Amino acid sequence: MGYLSGFHAIEERIKASPPGQTGPLLVAKAGPRAREIVDLAVERKIQVNRVGTHELDRLAPDHRGIALYTEDTGAGNEVTLASFLVSLEDRKDALAVILDEITDPHNYGAILRSCDQFGVDLVITRNRRIAKYAEIVSKTSAGADSWVPVAETANLPRAMESLKEAGFWIYGADMGGDPVWSKDLRGRTAIILGGEGTGITRLLKEKCDAVVAVPSRGRIDSLNVSVAAGVLLYEITRQRLQA
Known about the structure:
Layout (H helix, E strand, L loop, with lengths): L1 E3 L2 H10 L8 E3 L4 H12 L4 E3 L2 H7 L6 E5 L10 H8 L6 E6 L4 H13 L4 E4 L8 H7 L9 E3 L3 H10 L3 E11 L9 E6 L7 H6 L2 E4 L11 H18 L1
Parallel strand pairs: 2-3, 5-6, 5-9, 6-7, 8-9, 8-10
Antiparallel strand pairs: 1-4, 2-4
């Protein structure tokens, strides 16, 4: 339970939630952007409460005059891996992203934003440790956390096996891999992104069908994981659109 205070985060959570199933929306001072969100809340049958600035300061310190109370400040579109695989039916071009120990909430939010933009069908994470930073995640993702389906699991190796049994090819992202554009990334594809500074854990890397990289000419070691995610997802999208 908690409050979302970013304009994008509030707006997208309201849009993604069933009418009347989140809120209330607390408003201390409503500029033009906040008034748009208030109108949306009213349209979606969400209770709007006027509160004092000091009260909102206490409840949501980073607010911009408005905050949305929500029972779940984690991902707004949580699913199970099993239900996702069943829902695919005969689809041949599904795309999943597996996050192996991504601990920076800014990176996590940025990755979710890229996943939304490039049409990722599912994000799989190891656990909910990032949930305590939900407000940062929601702001950094610009509300994409309300839309991108997320499945949490305590056993990533088993999740990988389930994906493989469903016809997915799994690629690990690592600076020592083959150039990403040298692989055929169409069809049912999953990309694993490793933790900041540690990369993909050994057991998961061994289970990958191949390892891919974004070739770099820079002087530092590698790209930030969220930037690398955007580049990799762009390449997958490019290949699929060309096909």
